[in-house]
Design brief:
The chain has 15 helices and no strands.
């Protein structure tokens, strides 16, 4: 039976090749990362980049609705991955893609903003400041995904919701869902599925493990009384009341509240840095 040849797009060819690249286990990834860090071994860096291209492609897929070619998004995300490889510390205890995902997203966000055709530009001072600030990856991530939105919004004298609403006036692009995408077919058929991909699940799991590790590491650095208060108030199945802790430490309820606030502030500062 004759089967006609099917012409594959550049994206399909790329994804076919990426699927052939073996994934690294934690031990091999750590070994290669140390080779790059200690000896600047270019072959080790190349293997780290290639083995994590699947993660870049998974992240790039989330931004297809912006109407830009997916291969361009992957290319920019790969540059972010390469920056992450240069700075990756294998001794921190988490996987490369967990760390690199933030660099990949920042690179893609920057590309989206650089490629954007602005139809409406703010006419007042604050709108112009917000638009100019979107050139920074941190601001773009806050606007697009909400990460650290409170901190970014404070720079403009507004809350997170107000900032995202104002920023989205520039980020949202008017595009027909019927426009053809690179793989052929209407854009509406190319929108990512609502369910998480296996890569998304693994990345999220690794990130949660890292966050837990960082949290407990920070808690252990607190003074003993502060540590006990945080653990009893926030990490116990049955949280202790302020009154119970005040009796236990023979201090006032207000003092316990102050110690708790101080400890939580320290945790926030150490986990963000």
């Amino acid at each position: 039976m004759f089967v006609p040849a099917v012409e594959m797009s550049s994206l399909s060819l790329f994804m076919r090749d990426v699927r052939k690249i073996p994934h690294l286990d934690r031990e091999e990834e750590t070994r290669l990362a140390r080779l790059w860090r200690d000896r600047q071994d270019r072959e080790a860096a190349r293997q780290l980049v290639l083995s994590n291209l699947y993660g870049v492609a998974a992240i790039a897929r989330e931004y297809r609705h912006f109407g830009l070619p997916e291969m361009d998004l992957i290319q920019e995300g790969t540059l972010g991955l390469m920056h992450a490889v240069k700075r990756f510390d294998p001794e921190r205890g988490f996987r490369l893609m967990t760390y690199a995902s933030w660099w990949v997203r920042a690179a893609i966000h920057d590309f989206i903003l650089r490629s954007w055709s602005i139809v409406k530009l703010g006419t007042n001072k604050i709108q112009r400041r917000i638009f100019a600030g979107l050139q920074k990856a941190r601001n773009a991530i806050a606007a697009l995904e909400g990460h650290h939105a409170d901190e970014v919004a404070a720079d403009f004298g507004m809350n997170a919701n107000e900032y995202q609403e104002a920023a989205n006036a520039f980020i949202q692009r008017d595009i027909s869902l019927d426009v053809e995408c690179e793989e052929g077919g209407a854009m509406v058929h190319a929108l990512p599925a609502p369910d998480a991909t296996p890569e998304d699940i693994v990345t999220e799991s690794n990130w949660q493990d890292y966050q837990k590790s960082a949290l407990y590491s920070s808690i252990n650095k607190l003074p003993e009384r502060d540590r006990i208060i945080v653990e009893r108030r926030h990490l116990s199945e049955e949280p202790a009341t302020l009154k119970e802790l005040s009796e236990e430490f023979s201090v006032s309820i207000e003092r316990v509240r102050q110690l708790e606030a101080r400890a939580l502030k320290r945790l926030k500062e150490t986990t963000l840095n």
